[in-house]
Amino acid sequence: MLSRFSPGTRQYLLVTGNYWAFTLTDGALRMLVVLHFHTLGYSPLEIALLFLFYEFFGVVTNLVGGWLGARLGLNRTMNAGLILQVAALAMLLVPQAQLTVPWVMAAQALSGIAKDLNKMSAKSTIKLLVPDDSGGALYRWVVLLTGSKNALKGTGFFLGGALLAMLGFRGAVGTMAGALTLVWLASVILLEKDLGRARQKPGFRAMFSKSRAINILSAARLFLFGARDVWFVVALPVYLSSTLGWAHWSVGGFLALWVIGYGLVQASAPHITGRGQRPGARATAGWAALLALTPAAIALALAEGLEPAAALIGGLSVFGLLFAVNSALHSYLIVSFANADAVSLDVGFYYMANATGRLIGTALSGWVFQLAGLEACLWLSAGFAAAAAALSLALPEKRP
Question: Of the residues 104, 266, 301, 315, which has the maximum number of CB atoms within 10 A of its CB?
Fold first, then answer.
């Protein structure tokens, strides 16, 4: 069937298929761990700590992974991500008594490395397969890949819950490991061998970006994802469960639907921001400024005594729409700004900043919520988004 397409399109479809398969298992694994360890009596904060290494190793992996992609080729880093995810799943197949917190944290660390190798490889590959001067085509293809990934991650939340109910924890994990092994074998055989390899092998210092535009965009990305995770990762689900009394399945289902909707909006970003238009500094800063107003408005609504569930559901819907557009704009800009030779270096550095923002947001989400409550997390989110908007004003309007 793939033979009907051009070589470039075939490679794009293979990369996208890899990314989709990985994302489904990534979302399902997160939900499996959350639900399984909740049944074992772990608190929400303790469960969140299980994912701390997942975020931390994302910082390291994106930085080193971009360098490896330029030296070895993006096909190898993508395949490495797939097989490492299989290994992470296999680690969770040990007997129940051996599923200790350090063991699960180690498995999550391996999964975090795998995820960021896979993501960096997929995003970098688009730069090589779609020309930047193709009338907005690069913008559309980037946000389609990114948006579909997030929609599938939310679908993975449902998949994890369904597999847990039907097969139990070990059966669900084993099924995902087997399916992903088949995807890895197909990827090893079909992906181009030298995809993304730089003509001149970069030195270790090349991991750090020398481009002013990419440095600014990376800093803005850090604050953008910090703005989301500082209230979304721990504070929001704990608040919904403990303060509003939502059942755990209701919290998980609501967040899964939010992620799916966020991904669908992200894939539609070119229609929202103007079809065929390639965004620059003013558009990126404007959308980030709108995003900053949303958590501030939710915090004010809660302070004024409005119905908390209505304020949070309505506010989170607006926040999701605006965050999806912001994320899509950023995802396009990094691919556009990246140097075509050794593109993975620039993309890896950028997603290192992304992972740092998630790590900071995750840590602050639990700490600030425990000290000062959800409203404080929302105000901090507004400040982070405002910082992203201010930094975006320094971006160039066109590709440097």
Answer: 266
Distance (Å, rounded) from C-alpha 237 to C-alpha 246?
Answer: 9
CB neighbourhood size of 276 (10 A): 10
CA distance 394 to 400: 13
Contacts of 96 (CB under 8 A, 6+ apart): none
Distances (CA, A) of 234 to 34, 35, 52, 218, 231: 12, 15, 12, 24, 7
> What distance in Å separates the CA atoms of residue 323 and residue 11, rounded to the nearest whole number?
29
The tens-digit pLDDT sequence of the chain (400 residues) is 555 656 666 777 777 788 888 888 888 888 788 777 777 777 656 766 777 788 788 788 877 776 776 677 777 888 898 999 999 999 999 988 888 888 888 898 899 889 888 887 777 777 666 655 555 677 777 777 777 777 888 888 778 878 888 888 899 999 999 999 999 998 888 877 666 555 555 554 544 556 788 889 999 999 999 999 998 877 888 888 778 888 766 777 788 888 888 888 888 888 887 655 566 678 899 999 999 999 999 999 999 989 999 999 999 999 999 999 999 899 888 888 877 666 767 777 888 888 899 889 988 887 888 888 999 999 999 999 999 999 999 988 666 5
- What is d(CA 187, CA 21) in angstroms, rounded to the nearest whole number? 11
Within 13 Å of residue 70, how many CA atoms lie on the same side as its CB?
A: 27
Q: Choose among 259, 341, 284, 361: nearest CA to 23.
A: 259
Buried-state track 114-147, b at ≥16 Cβ within 10 A, e below 16: bbbbbbbbbbbbbbbbbebeeebebbbbbbbbbb
| Residue with tokens 């750090």, as numbered in its chain | 208
Work out the number of other CB atoms within 10 angstroms of the CB of residue 72. Answer: 17
CA distance 29 to 52: 15
Q: What is the DSSP letter of 95?
A: -
Q: Is residue 131 a contact partner of residue 88, using CB atoms and an 8 Å limit?
A: no
